[in-house]
Amino acid sequence: MSTARTVLETEEHQALRAAVAALGKRYGRDYMTTVIREGSHTDELWAEAAKLGYLGVNLPEEYGGGGGGMAELSIVLEELGAAGSPLLMMIVSPAICGTVIARFGTDEQKRKWLPGLADGSLTMAFGITEPDAGSNSHRITTTARRDGTGPDADWLLTGRKVFVSGVDMADATLIVGRTEDARSGKLKPCLFIVPRETPGFGRNRIDMELHAPEKQFELVLDDVRLPADALVGDEDAGLLQLFAGLNPERIMTAAFGIGMGRFALSKAVEYARTRQVWKAPIGSHQAIAHPLATAHIDLELSRLMMQKAARLYDDGDDVGAGEAANMAKYAAGEACVKAVDQAVHTLGGNGLTREYGLASLITASRVARIAPVSREMILNYVSHQTLGLPKSY
């Protein structure tokens, strides 16, 4: 596949991409499928990526990070995915939780969490989705109330969350709840750090058809008592803090989808070059070649939008990044699903065998389309926020 993409990147970014690609190649899809089959975690790859400085490349240098941003972190996840071994928890731990704490956390929260998130010794999960509200922050029913008066009073957190990734391996979960505004009485979003073994913090694994090292959980919070300093940042800056995490989530989900699509496409191209049924390789036939070319184009276009979103976010343009991040996530999700689908069809029956490692991606690719927000909600966002069309809800 062409390397023309690198002309838009700095030499440092090109070097990072090449180094991470080499790491991913040493593990590959076989490593990932073995981990999934054994029901274990990607501890070895996570540890090596951390040791090389890749996991915390977006976090501040003063806390052990690389001092970069979403541009660098998205390269890491994309290249690992293109090698067949993406680390889903990168979307959650350094991208969402690390970013939110780095931007809005107290000095103590930064000292406690950022060095571990940067070197991979600590991980965090992120809980926003609820059974009835989905990811609609305005309908979240998980609530926090003070147990007493004054700024040092404990918090009591009650509610439910679903589809929370990796809670079993995370040291804590960043929970999106709501508190009552003292002036208006309205509920506003706030974020709380909930350590894994906190009393009243229960988890139940969700039985998924999706096969991945990272399991999905339902969380039950039953009057979970948290100290005052469990609240991240300013109680009155909830939406700003929330979207500081959601934009990186969308950028990294785009990287996840692009990487997966590239992996599937590379397998299909390799097969189409060598598989011969009549007198020539099947890749010489336009019915095979053109859909693969289209998939490549879609993935490249998705990357451009992802790079734009990362640049805007890293430059501090949260509003501009919001639009671009949503568009990047939408485009990458569609491109990923189409690339996987076309790859499987290119291989025919072989595309459904374990040997080629594509069949499991039929389900996995849907993650990029569905999570963390559906394509329909992104279309709502663009039609309302960008085009100024009226809402029906």
Describe the structure.
Helix content is 51%, strand content 14%. With 393 residues, the protein is of the alpha+beta class. The chain folds into 3 domains: 109 residues, Orthogonal Bundle (Butyryl-Coa Dehydrogenase, subunit A, domain 1); 112 residues, Butyryl-CoA Dehydrogenase, subunit A, domain 2 (Beta Barrel); 148 residues, Butyryl-CoA Dehydrogenase, subunit A, domain 3, CATH 1.20.140. Strands 2-3-7-6 form a 4-stranded antiparallel β-sheet, with no helix packed on it. A 3-stranded mixed β-sheet has the order 1-4-5, with helices on one face. A hairpin with a 6-residue loop joins strand 2 and strand 3. Helix 3 packs parallel to helix 6, helix 4 packs antiparallel against helix 6 and helix 8 runs antiparallel to helix 10. The longest helix has 37 residues. The mean pLDDT is 93.
What are the main properties of this structure?
alpha+beta, Butyryl-CoA Dehydrogenase, subunit A, domain 3, four-stranded antiparallel beta sheet, globular
